[in-house]
Amino acid sequence: MNFYLLFKSLHLIAVISWMAGLLYLPRIFVYHSEASHHSQKQVFKTMERKLYNYIMMPAMLLSWLFGVLLIYSLGFDIFKEFWMQIKIVSVLILTHYHFMLGRYLQDFKTDNNRKSSRFFRIINEVPTIILIVVVFVVVFKPLI
Ligand code: HEM
Hints:
144 residues; binds protoporphyrin IX containing FE
């Protein structure tokens, strides 16, 4: 059994699921911040809680777990490589962004959101930019 390839496949599955949530949750926040009816808000709260707790949180933990197992398989010397340094900074920003969304989710849960829908539209671009950076960096790594 080639554990390196197994970890890489599982890493990619987890990363795709995590990214799906990171891109979709702020979209729900956009609609939630514009909603005025109580029943609408309740639906958004359920969608947000389930997405964050049952998809994003496990996917984030599994992305890290299999990412760290890949680092272990390849040897810690990969931290000397420039592509890995860019990647690690990018995924730390992404992880910080993940927990920031968790704080906004709590604000919505208690009907204390003060941010505008425009704010959520803008921050929605953060994971898109990081996704582009990370994919280019891991694909072009032999040249970096
Ligand atoms: C959560 C922390 C993460 C860690 C510790 C991590 C670490 C790693 C490592 C060590 C590899 C193996 C590279 C190689 O085989 O040379 C890898 C592969 C990969 N990672 Fe991550 N990663 C993380 C998150 C992400 C994220 C968020 C994305 C996408 C947005 C991503 C996309 C990829 C891709 C596409 C590959 C395959 C590269 C290839 O086959 O050459 N990773 N990751």
